[in-house]
Amino acid sequence: MAVYRLNTFSNIEMIAEGVRNGERRALARAITLVESARADHREKAQALLANLAGHQKQSIRIGLSGTPGVGKSTFIECFGTTMTEQGHRLAVLAVDPSSTVTGGSILGDKTRMDTLARNPAAFIRPSPSGGSLGGVARRTRETIALCEAAGFDLVIVETVGVGQSEIAVSRMTDIFLLLLAPAGGDELQGVKRGIMEIADLIVVNKADGDLKAAAQRTRSDYAAALRLMRRRDGDTQGFPQAVTASAIEGNGITEVAVLIAQLAESRRASGYLARQRQEQAVTWLQNALETRLQDVFEQAIPKDVTDRINTAVRQGELLPEAGAERLIDLYREAMRTR
Known about the structure:
With 338 residues, the chain is of the alpha/beta class. The chain folds into three domains: 1-55, Single alpha-helices involved in coiled-coils or other helix-helix interfaces (Up-down Bundle); 56-269, Rossmann fold; 281-336, no CATH class. Helices cover 51% and strands 12% of the residues. It contains 14 helices and seven strands. It has a seven-stranded parallel β-sheet with strand order 3-2-4-1-5-6-7, sandwiched between helices. Helix 1 crosses helix 2 (24-35), helix 1 crosses helix 3 and helix 13 (303-314) runs antiparallel to helix 14 (320-336).
């Protein structure tokens, strides 16, 4: 068995070859490399991504979010099992909230999808959000590219939760699913309009047992709400729409899969999917630039200087705006003396 390490550039070729061959160990190592914040690892990560460029499989990228307790992991496990039985290869990027103590994932989605985690046609990767807004990790887009290079034709990005900032996930996926639980009108009021506006498919989960009738009412409420929203560019006839499903019983899961396939094919045939990915690439160029500028800025100014300014702001001796101006002046001075 190949051993994948990060300590030499010579191993980049070996990791890339393993990823192209669909080796799970190589893919896991590659994701660890692109998620690393170390400067030397970032350089290797860029070399790895360049090596794999052009080898990506054309996958369907699915963003999935939902209210707490809606059963996202149970739904993904049922949906994923259904898709792998149909011959698909599925990657799940489960972005968890980050621990403020260790910086690692809190929820541990891999332990909550134990059946799917053992499926040879599926790959689950929990990643801490690292405090990033939008419910996605800083390197999620690069991780998607790695999964596609490994031959996965379905990629699900499960986000942290529901909120306006969740719109970020739509900038890296093709189809967005909003998972909801049966409820009354209060939940309809509680879901942000912003996330409703980007949802391609609303799935009311837990439509079983005593909740089945409530699920149908909730679906009707959301279907009515969707009809009041302005039609978006790229919308296909009948979309967005609301449906019911039961991840526990497996009911409605196949129907959800059919709807996703129909929407993806329609958008691909119309050229909308290609245009959407082009726009997403430009958006993530801007995000990558902002991240890189932040890194360069932090490297240019000694940490003890930054700490002193932070302390002055914290104690009220310096206004935040004045502190920012001082840091910018120090950065400009550092650039001039190089």
